[in-house]
# Entry
Amino acid sequence: MNNPADTSPGSPAAFRGPGGHYHDVLAELKEPSGELRRHIEDVYAGFAQLHKASLAGGVLSAGTKELIATAIAIAEQCDGCIASHARGAARKGVTPAEFAEMVGVTILMQGGPATIYGPRAWDAFMEFLPADVAAPAHAGTPS
# Structure
């Protein structure tokens, strides 16, 4: 059972909110995903192995890989993918500035739809961001 006073890394209270829309998106997928998984166990096992190998740190950091996955999730307009990889980015120590720049590049490459799904991804990332990480006041233009 979750302890609301527990602010250790990874605990719900250590994040900006123990709930919210993107927590709900992932929670809503849990039961139907589990049910489907029981019918196609080998597919899910293979995907889990691919997921683990693909997102492990290597030449590219695990955080960079989560940014790439989130950019693709924005382009594909997949709220479940956005929630999953925004959470992964937050857990891997991606900063708000890094996340915002990734959204900017995604808008460049994807255009108008990314101006809708990019802010959704930003919202998800901020929801999963540890509470002790300050959000930037304004990214601005680098000099």
In short: DSSP finds six helices and no strands in the chain. The radius of gyration is 16 Å. Residues 21-39 form the longest helix (19 residues).
